[in-house]
Amino acid sequence: MRSRVIFAAVVAALAVCLSGCSDDGQHIAQVTTGGNVHRGAAAIERYGCGSCHIIPGISGAQGRAGTSLDGIADRIYIAGVLQNTPENMMRWIENPHAVDPKTVMPNLGVTERDARDIAGYLYTLK
Q: How far apart are CA 25 and CA 125, in angstroms?
């Protein structure tokens, strides 16, 4: 009986730690980009980004035409041409053809606010 109580306490402590770590990651992403992680997830769904990309945490985002965005926050480059900074991420999301005229990524008419929020979400993907 005592081992069950200890096990339950350890599991509860681990759950608290992991949820806190997630919150820290969201907070850092939001401060870094100025975007809202929750609005970013909604914008990703609204613009249909998951039809081309695998995006962890986004329902149905299992596209294979573009690269997987899993771990995008830790990559050195965006689209192989831009240093991975929040400003460059937003620039790429808003108008990919201004960065690389030959890219197959479509210009979806993403607004500046939505690009900021989407970048905020993407920077949680480590």
A: 9
Does 81 have pLDDT greater than 80?
Answer: yes
> How far is Cα 22 from Cα 110, in angstroms, rounded to an integer?
27
Q: Which domain holds residue 106?
A: 2-122
Number of domains in the chain: 1
- In sequence order, the 6+-apart residues with CB closer than 8 A to the CB of 48 are 108
CB-CB contact of 33 with 88 (8 Å): no
| The pLDDT value given to residue 21 | 41
Provide CB contacts within 8 A for 82, sequence distance 6+: 88, 89, 91, 92, 99
> Helices 112-122 and 37-47, interaxial angle, to 10°?
110
Q: What CATH number does the domain containing 83 carry?
A: 2.60.40.420
pLDDT digits 0-9 by tens, 31-77: 889 999 999 999 999 999 999 999 999 999 999 999 999 999 999 99
Instruction: Confirm if 63 and 70 have CB atoms less than 8 A apart.
Output: no
Q: Is the pTM of this model over 0.85?
A: no
